Every structure is written in C-alpha cells, then in structure tokens.
Amino acid sequence: MPLQAQLDEIRSRTRELLRPEHLAVTDRAVAELQAAGLAKEVLPVGAPAPDFELLDSSGKLVRSSELRAGGALVITFYRGRWCPYCVALLALSPQTQRHSTFTAEQHHLKFPLLCDTGNHVARQFKLVYTVPDYLKQQYQRTFVNLPLCNGDQSWELPLAATYIVGRDGTILFAEVSADYTRRTEPQRILKALES
Predict the structure, then answer these.
(1) For residues 162 and 184, what is the distance between their CA atoms, to the nearest angstrom?
(2) 3-state DSSP assignment of residue 193
(3) Whole-prediction pTM
(4) Residue 118, class by beta-carbon neighbours within 10 Å (0-12 exposed, 13-18 middle, 19+ buried)?
(5) Which of 20, 27, 68, 130 gets the highest tally of CB atoms within 10 A of its CB?
(6) Who's near 48: CB < 8 A, 6+ residues apart?
(7) What is the pLDDT of residues 7-59, one digit of tens each?
(8) Nearest in space to 95 (alpha carbons), one of 113, 75, 76
(9) How far apart are CA 47 and CA 126, in angstroms?
C-alpha cells in the first residue's frame, strides 16, 4: 500500500476519534502554515545543503559529509514520535536523544534516527516554525509535551520534508509540505535516487 494511502487511513481513523473542536484546531494550524507559504521559502533543489553533525539515537556522532561519501543522502524531517503520521516514516527529529532512542527501539528502525535538538539543522534548511498558541494549548491538553520530547521550551517544529543530497552536497530533490499528513512516497525517492 502506498505511504500516502496509509497516512490517509490514519487521517480517517484520527478524524473519527477526535472531537470536532480538536480537528478544527489542527485544520486551522495547517491552513495557516499553507497560507504563510513557508514551504516555498525552504532550501531548493540546486542549493548547497548544510553540512551537519548530529547524534543518532544511540549517541553516536553522525556527519552528513561521511554519509554522503557513500552516495546520495536521503534526509527526512519529522515532528516527533507523538505524531501518528510521522511514525510511518522517520529520520531526523528535534527530539532529545532519549526520546529518539525510544522511537528507534519502539519502531525497530533500520536506519539512523538523528537528534536535531533545537532544530538547528531544520533551521538551516528553513523548515522551522513555531507552534501557534491555540495549538500549543491543545497539545498540552492532549499530553503532547514538546518541551519534554524536544529538550527545549521553544515549541518549534520542522515542516514535513524530504531531501536528497548528492555526494557534492548539492540538493538533488526537495519535497516539503506545510501539511504534516502529506509525505513523499518512497517510490518517488527511489526514482529520484536512480536518476
């Protein structure tokens, strides 16, 4: 089943379970992010990707330059383990190492989950936004504790994004969405890697 079909199924089940006033809050937040045009201001194809060093979920230092030496590097930004859409496809998160370790173990990940605590790398890709107060209040009521998960008080998250970076550090593919329920299909990533 395609990834987006899986995410649409999650969305359908979520919409059945959540109260209408909760859905209105999340729908409003997505609509505002889309209207703000943040997804159009991110690093584009052809731009140099920032080099970074981050810890993975086991505490090992990972350098993007070393990963690129083995071939094109796929980078996916996601919001956190608390997001049902994000756990369908994981890679680089603002979560602390402790929470990333939990995520990697819980979902039996076969790839490195990097800890972008403080959203430093996401910020370099121009993906970071601040959660609006009304959504922050809803998260707090539903026990989504971003300060605990992310290790800071910023209430910032990255947009849903997938990049492919070539060996030379150039961005070869970029797909970014202000709607966290939309993700790049793995087949699109594979096709981009083949070209």
Answers:
(1) 7
(2) helix
(3) 0.82
(4) middle
(5) 68
(6) 169, 170, 171
(7) 788 788 888 888 889 889 999 999 999 999 999 999 999 999 999 999 988 89
(8) 113
(9) 12
Contact of 150 with 96, CB cutoff 8 Å: yes
55-56-60-65 Cα dihedral, nearest 10 degrees: -70
What is the set of domains in the chain, with CATH numbers? Answer: 3-194 (3.40.30.10)
What is the spatial distance between Cα 45 and Cα 192, in angstroms, rounded to a whole number?
12
Q: Helices in the chain by DSSP H: which ranges?
A: 3-17, 20-36, 64-69, 97-106, 120-124, 133-141, 146-150, 186-194
At position 1, the amino acid (one-letter code) is M
SS3 111: coil
